[in-house]
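Case study B.
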Amino acid sequence: MNILVCVKQVPDMAGRFSPNAAGTWYDEAALVFRMNERDENAVEEAVRFKEQLGGTPEVTVLSIGPGRVVETIRKALAMGCDRGVHIDDPLASERDPWQIASMIAGHARGCRYDIIFTGMQSDDRGSAQVGVLTAEMLCVSCVTGVVGFGWQDGAATADRELEGGRRGMTRLKPPMLLTCQQGLNSPRYPTLPNIMKSRKKEISVLLPDEVGLGEPLSSVTGFRHHERQTAGLFLEGDVDDLAGRVATLLDAKRGIFRRGGAV
Amino acid sequence: MKALLVGECRDGRLAGEVAELFGFAAVSGAEASLVLVGNPDGVPAFGGRLYFADAREYGEYNPDVHKRLVMQAVERECPDVVVFLQSSYGWDLAPRLAAAMNVAQVSGVTGIDDGGYAVDSCNGKMRRTVKPLTSSAVLTLQPGAFPAPAEQGVPELIRLDADRSSGIEFLGSSQPETGADLSRASAIVSAGRGVGSEKHVDLVRGLAEALGGEVGASRPVIDAGWLERSRQVGSSGQTVSPALYVACGISGSIQHLAGMKGAGYILAVNTDRDAPIGDVADVFVVADLVQFLPALTARLRVGQ
Ligand SMILES: Cc1cc2nc3c(=O)[nH]c(=O)nc-3n(C[C@H](O)[C@H](O)[C@H](O)COP(=O)(O)OP(=O)(O)OC[C@H]3O[C@@H](n4cnc5c(N)ncnc54)[C@H](O)[C@@H]3O)c2cc1C
Ligand SMILES: Nc1ncnc2c1ncn2[C@@H]1O[C@H](COP(=O)(O)O)[C@@H](O)[C@H]1O
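Model:
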């Protein structure tokens, strides 16, 4: 059994974003990078699955991006993946989802992965396309927004998250691609011994052209701050003073917000 | 311009947001037709062509089968844009359609600008314009971005039918977990990831008690197990409209806003003055909730 997990390195969303000179994406200088949140769920699920099957499946983790993404590949190795693939592409942030998918599919074609786990969407671009496009390119079954995964008798069950808290239950056989949603599991923190062990794990480096980089289907311009609607009242300053002012505001609406009852 | 709108049916009913697809057609001045795998008793009123298949035969959701059905409508219409909602149905099916048509897809469109489509990035902090380089494109619309116009008329019905084979077997769907009913609360105080740890959820509880309200939460707090799932507010949780909503350490992602922007009065407490919750807040307090919430709670208790 061969498993692939695709992880993207993204900035911490609490950071201060500003556009790059070309206005196509953010300037990286002031940002701190980490693994995309849903990709942590994907790594966790792949590693749990490996453990459930007694450690036989080999789990490969793949990331496309500049040199800095190796750090994210290392984290996935420390969480329990077996080997890494770095598609070294300094222009990754300028590629459209179709191109990113074409590289993942290009790599996967030669490897016969039984299950590919991706995140449902990335925190920065948030297109929610790369996983599904990869599956379409590889002609494998795909379930998106997975919040539950099980395995029995050579088939997987995957629960999809639907609107309003409903879930749709599916069953499918490999080869398959699943896009993972938050809540699927609680990703583990790598332990120190596992971090040490991961340093010896192999990371192979491939170039975009080697894995069949496709032509872009869309382009990006005008990357900018979201224009804020500033109709509301903005309060800043000493905490006690703020509490007093807000209490007065709420008191003025006392009739509307019933107060005093128990939760 | 010709737009093929793709409707959707949830739990046997036409999704209300389908009307927003017509909002997009109106804003872009497109001639609209609709394709729907749905319930024959729940068909929207409009004066165009309706490509229809019955969900009782084809399932409410099956990507392989629905892709074939929608592709038939695409072949008949030759649209400039195929338009979905950015929903569990849309984000799953739209990329499949784009791949089958070999055209660009733009996800989460919030507006039309500069020859392209405006799309949010970085958790709503930034925005960009995405331009398809292909002659036609597949779009998904951000909920609430295109107000629904009043449509009327009786569509011309064209029945679709397709092969039902699929690599995915559907075992059914489950209803949401029951528990807290936030829909009747006059005040809701919600905890976001900014509470930092489980013990600080008590600060949120304390304020909710002082206001006589319920405790709600954003998704990461629920996923961490700090509060029960029935308290999740947002597109995959409950939709609430209390008189007062207090968002504590919640950034204001689109999915969270979808569940609470109907509240009468919104108070946000956040250390990041750029947090998108500022878009909907009546009062935005820039403060550390760990200090601010106890201070506010104490004031309110004194005032009682
Ligand atoms: C398909 C789908 C469905 C989803 N459904 C939902 C849903 O139903 N409900 C939902 O909520 N989310 C949902 N999400 C997730 C959503 O996209 C966001 O990830 C989530 O809402 C973020 O939660 P948050 O604002 O609590 O956390 P974050 O975005 O991490 O924000 C934390 C905030 O806390 C602030 N903060 C940090 N420390 C402090 C402090 N000490 N004091 C004050 N402020 C502080 C930070 O500045 C930040 O703004 C969904 C996502 C997807 C893709
Ligand atoms: N540069 C990348 N390298 C590896 N995987 C990626 C990359 N970009 C996107 N993905 C995968 O595709 C998923 C969806 O991303 P997106 O389509 O950008 O929302 C992510 O959660 C990742 O699993």
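The first strand of chain B starts at residue 2 and ends at 6. The remaining cases will be described in the next quarterly update.
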